[in-house]
Design brief:
The protein is α/β, with parallel strands linked by helices. The protein contains 13 helices and eight strands. Bound molecules: phosphoenolpyruvate and magnesium ion. Belongs to the PEP-utilizing enzyme family.
Amino acid sequence: DQQRYASIRERPCVTRDGARIALLMNAGLMADLPSLVSSGAEGVGLFRTELQFLTRNKVPRRGELASLYARVLDAANGKAVTFRTLDIGSDKVLPYMKATEEPNPALGWRAIRVGLDKTGVMRMQLQALLRAANGRPMDIMFPFIAQLEEFLEARAHLTREIHRETSLGHVLPATIRVGAMLETPSMAFAPRTFFEAADFISIGGNDLKQFFFAADRENERVRRRYDTLNVSYLSLIEQIVGRCDETKTPLSFCGEDAGRPVEALCFAAMGLRSLSMRPASIGPVKNILLKSDLSEVRTVINAAREAGEQSVRGAVMEYLRGR
Ligand code: PEP
Ligand code: MG
């Protein structure tokens, strides 16, 4: 399949009406990195750091993590990599973490909530990331931010670690960009200061969608029940795009839906200009975007919304078949 899309691999992703869409890949292992070249991804939009924690029987050491992250940056060869700090709890439980019985783990003590309550591991990971950069640019994002204060607190921890690195005489990254993952509907309506405080925002669509529709992403009985192209969900995306535009905050989308061509097309029509997905999806997504006129797709979406449809999928599919 990669073969099929080889002819467009080096082509920048520009739609027929001139919108430039950045296509990035998600990764979590060293073994994923060669896909940066074979897929034509422009960078790693989401590097999930959980695996190194999940596959050990104790917390990995700072030096070990720093050298792994440095190898990730080496392999990226100048392309940007966005590292997400540890996102555990819910479906990802560390074998050596005291199991906390929670009635609703997806709504429980997870991700940044753990990081902010037990700061030791997060601070160690931030140190490892700062050292891994060793003078190169470093992009870090915090998972599962549900209110402004959590982002400010996480960012303050990073600032403290930056000062500590300086006082220890370590080389700092050339640039440090600090982002938030937007995975709860609350953040679409956050105060303006949130959008100003974040250097960039990445929508975690897997979680955002599960919380928006109150449908467990892990539960086979309900997880496919709600269409991503449901007008309510597209309006949420539109709201987030609008909020980020107001403050000129760079916005990306990194859930699985970004890798589905029709979904990706509709997201782009709603204003998203950066999508991060599994490497194998980059070809098919680029293929549909190159052939599309986003303003036409937007007109189809708006017409379906005005007609009172529940989802725009039918209208968009009909448009795609007819063009
Ligand atoms: C998401 O929630 O969409 C996401 C990218 O993070 P994860 O799937 O790791 O929760
Ligand atoms: Mg998530």
